[in-house]
Amino acid sequence: MTYFSKSRVEAFSDGVFAIIVTLLVLELKVPHLTHDASMADLYKALLLLLPKLVSWVISFLMVCIIWVNHHRILDQIAHITHGVFWLNAFLLLWCSFIPFPTALLGDYLTNPVSSLVFGGVMALMSLTFSGLRWQAYRSHGVLKPDVNRAHFRKATVRSLLFGPLLYSTGALLGLVDYRLAMAVFALVPIYFIFFNSAQQSVAHQPGLHAKTNA
Amino acid sequence: MTYFSKSRVEAFSDGVFAIIVTLLVLELKVPHLTHDASMADLYKALLLLLPKLVSWVISFLMVCIIWVNHHRILDQIAHITHGVFWLNAFLLLWCSFIPFPTALLGDYLTNPVSSLVFGGVMALMSLTFSGLRWQAYRSHGVLKPDVNRAHFRKATVRSLLFGPLLYSTGALLGLVDYRLAMAVFALVPIYFIFFNSAQQSVAHQPGLHAKTNA
Amino acid sequence: MTYFSKSRVEAFSDGVFAIIVTLLVLELKVPHLTHDASMADLYKALLLLLPKLVSWVISFLMVCIIWVNHHRILDQIAHITHGVFWLNAFLLLWCSFIPFPTALLGDYLTNPVSSLVFGGVMALMSLTFSGLRWQAYRSHGVLKPDVNRAHFRKATVRSLLFGPLLYSTGALLGLVDYRLAMAVFALVPIYFIFFNSAQQSVAHQPGLHAKTNA
Amino acid sequence: MTYFSKSRVEAFSDGVFAIIVTLLVLELKVPHLTHDASMADLYKALLLLLPKLVSWVISFLMVCIIWVNHHRILDQIAHITHGVFWLNAFLLLWCSFIPFPTALLGDYLTNPVSSLVFGGVMALMSLTFSGLRWQAYRSHGVLKPDVNRAHFRKATVRSLLFGPLLYSTGALLGLVDYRLAMAVFALVPIYFIFFNSAQQSVAHQPGLHAKTNA
């Protein structure tokens, strides 16, 4: 069995994540006005970018959360096998697609199709994450020896329910009212940043330990 | 004889690969409709993006395969000489060109010129890979001492036949029917992801050994 | 308490910074003239890009300064906690936004709204930097043991006053005359590159020490 | 005196170089034809992209050469001081500008202004390289102890004459005939790739020694 260099897979993935978050802003286009436009004209034109700004911030923070989850999983993995590599590649595929549904949401915020596409892509991305965890769990010698396998398994099952369920709910709520969908999508980063840290470190990450500057 | 730092060549190459896969999605442009477009309108407009979506997925996975091959070769190389560096640079040149034939295929899927350009670029990229392998093989001290040179040579000859031949076939089949070309192009990632791993690790990679987290 | 791998956070941040500085140039679009345009025509069309060129150079150098500050802070940090990670993420959020106000300034140089947005974004970015310093200071075990905490605290308070104040002043001066705003924005890199090095190394960075090639 | 982490400066620079070479292709836009365009139509439309293709290849290879030179210099440097960092930053500034003159050359190949801008930017980039070498030479303790200072000094003076002179000549020859300018610009990568390796390794790089996989 051959393995991939973990550091190169991390470097490639980090590169993709860094580019995605940075490309997202390219959707925010400077309004086209005449060059002698008044302050009020430019101000009003910028206000129209608000939906794009909101979907940009949500997507940016979601990619950061994906990065954190990616970091957490790879931190518990000792070897990158063929299967882990390709599940990681499919995860990157969904992630690199994020600029498209983000732009769609920015352009057609009130159209339920936007929420369906955005939530659907995120649900599939989330599902791939669970697949990556599962692949790491069931392959021999992939997880580091000090990882608590029972905990890792439980966290994998939870991730399967939590992510895809939440994003699908957001996607479907868009059919009722786009503000409900946006509320669900915005809740993910808010919850993750402010409430998730302590819980995760206790319940999900028994294999993690303090790392010093590598 | 001076050598290049292998880690910097890898970092540069990984950066280029990461950017290519992420830039590919920029070709998927959100359709321009009026802002009060109905769900059906937006849905239909998105369906028209299907050819672009298919060519995006194929190109994404092909770049991942290139990354895997690049990783495999560099893993067997001890030193990066002037010749290896520039063959690697030409490989990156073809790779960074991929967004163009991908966009061409997405825009003119049924036009044989698209398949010819896409398959032709991929064949040249594949040829450069074989050149890189050959340069590594024939230069003194480039391959790691534990690499089985007879196996490496055989794999190099096989890569010369397999890649360019396959891509040229796809390119030419586009003259008959674009679906035949797409089937060949899509077969490459499918074959590589689902059937290639075991075989490669036995037949092509005798010099590889398990790597732990670097 | 779990920590993040400092090297991966650095790699992710470096990737974002590298992409930002490089994307900035995409705003400089080649003028559209007929292909038989005379030398004078093309020269005049290029001259019109001067405001974009100036705002590009200023933004480029500002991102380099942000990189230097980021490097300085991370160099004094031993562990990346949840709090430090997310403050860093918000810093990257502001930074990845920079291409937008830069383009705005390039398009509407004389409109005070541009200076307000540019200066405002920079002030918020600068405020996030102070927040990151503060978080590093008040969290147990985040700063390296050899960092002089009194000096770090003083530098944090100074950064709180200096950055946001300076950028807000530039933003507001744009209401009087855009040249005043530009002068303030241009002064930041000039001051930082030519006068800041010696002072910083004595007053702000007592915890730093010579690093050899890692 | 404080120093920068050489590995982070390298990572940042490698990121910028990788993005530049990859962004260059974005200038190659797929032609807009009707979707039932014939093979001949598409073929003819693609032929019109030839000047852009040529300037793309030249710029791509030039950035690779810059990477090689950057690698060579940093390989001889032990510490990155404030001065070295900012000269490196200005080098990256010129490099990240390259997509603009490349696009200009692709759009207005026969207009002498394009050659002047392209050659001028390259000459300034080249001058910054010499400045970086000079700064490394004259600053105490920047060069590695095993670097032959007399050779390094001679190579610095030669780089001052060679690069800026060559690029200025190309720029000015564009006033006579654009093909002369293109010939000079194309000669640089051809010379560098096929003739420069042996000479450089003997005459310029006495401080270099074989590096194993880091």
What would you say about this model in short?
The first copy, chain A, is mainly alpha-helical and 214 residues long. Chain A has helices at 6-23, 39-47, 50-75, 82-97, 99-107, 112-138, 149-173, 178-194, 196-203.
Helix content of chain A: over 70%
Q: Largest protein interface?
A: A-C, 43 and 41 residues
Oligomer type: homotetramer
Number of helices of chain A: 9
Distance between the termini of chain A: 28 Å
User: What is the molecular shape of chain A?
Assistant: elongated
Derived from helix and strand composition plus strand pairing, the structural class of chain A reads: mainly alpha
**Could you spell the SSE succession of chain A in H and E letters?**
HHHHHHHHH
Quote the average pLDDT of chain A: 87
Low-confidence stretches of chain A: 198-214
- Strand proportion of chain A: under 5%
Give the radius of gyration of chain A. 19 Å
Biggest sheet record of chain A: none
Tally of discrete structural domains of chain A:
1
Number of strands of chain A: 0
Main location (chains A, B, C, D): membrane
Family (chains A, B, C, D): Belongs to the TMEM175 family.
GO molecular function (chains A, B, C, D): potassium channel activity; proton channel activity
Catalytic activity (chains A, B, C, D): K(+)(in) = K(+)(out)
